[in-house]
Amino acid sequence: MQSVRDGHLASDRQRVTVERLDAVLGRAARRHRVPGAQLAVLRDGERMVVQTGVEDQDRGTPMTGESAVPSGSVTKVATATVVMALVADDDLELDQPVGDVLGVAGLDRGLTPRRLLSHTSGLPSDPADPAAGCLREVREAVPVCPAGTAFSYSNLGYALVGAVIEAVTGMTWREAVEAIVLRPSKIEPVYAGHGVSGHGRATGPAGARPVEQVLPPMLEPAGALAFSARDLVELGRIHLGKPGLLDVVTAADMHRAVPEAEPFGLADGWGLGIAHFGSGEDTWLGHDGTADGTSCHLRVDQAGACVVAFTANGAAGTDMWHDVAAELRELGLDLPEQRFGQPGARPVPVPDGHFGTYRNGAIDYTVRRDGAGAALVVDGEVYPGLVLHDDGSFTVRDPATGRATPCGRFRTAAVEIGGRLARRR
């Protein structure tokens, strides 16, 4: 195992040392059989970085502090920060209909940058035809709810944000995110599938296998970037008030929780492109991201001037992160625990009215009977062992591990799964 120390924590009040981080990461990687992982902690201006394993299991290339891991939806933090920088420079207004910004007719006037960034636009999760144009997809999309009324995670919404960035800046999304966010933060731009040495690892019946990163160009603003944990710390530093990118008022608007955004199962609240974990004075900002066989997590504690970043190149990376976060709490980092459902919720029978098919864009979620119980089917993939609780939340059994996994909740004539709202067909 290798480790890099960029500084030491200035106070003994935290029991965090580079050696302890090294041990935490190594134990968790072995436990979850993740080929390679990175962990970075910034506290009071000083940074510690550790890594373990390999960035490419087939070649045996060691994971280093600079290894870029496809980071999936953590990309949205960078995209949203570009938008807020444009707002700070008076080049864009958060509540302006994006059809006016783009100079096109036929778009719902409820689609504004504020709603797109906070996933309250009502757009479905993904385009029906990833090869089609973004505007065509948005025009033809069937909303999952009226704009501004509910949270529903939308990659299509961020594709539209990318189009807005391009219209305002006259640059491509890549050029804009590099010029406005990445290079000023000394982050070398790396894109999934381009310049990434390693692959993610997926788990199947034959064991772990390498998987290539596949992302339609339309969805690059939603998930194209690859970061090291060190890079993610630098991205997080912007949201500790790093000067030169966002003024105080604009940053506060970005970080403030949007009342309509209730991201059940994903986080405890949502701002403009950044999630809330915990509540009150214990709230951390951040974002989670999964690409093909990878998992990345960013947490920012503004009150404690702390950033924690984690990357992993295995399918079990998210489970590994939860274990790492638990051990970091024992070391004195007050990372909030991720909650799902209400404490003490009890299993109850699935009512007849819950069975059926729900739709979000081109994705169907079907709740069907499965012997004496129930199962969830997502576009043909079966998740057995659906257990409903009396608070409306439910778990399913992970086909790969057999473990009960939090999944979503039922609402009136709708279901929320992974933060996506799907209406009954």
From TrEMBL:
* Membrane-spanning intervals of the chain: none
- List the GO molecular function terms: hydrolase activity
Q: Which domain of life is it from?
A: Bacteria
Q: Which UniProt keywords apply?
A: Hydrolase
Beta-lactamase-related domain boundaries: 22-319
What InterPro entries does the record point to?
A: AmpC-like (IPR050491), Beta-lactam-related (IPR001466), Beta-lactam/transpept-like (IPR012338)
What is this protein's name? Class A beta-lactamase-related serine hydrolase
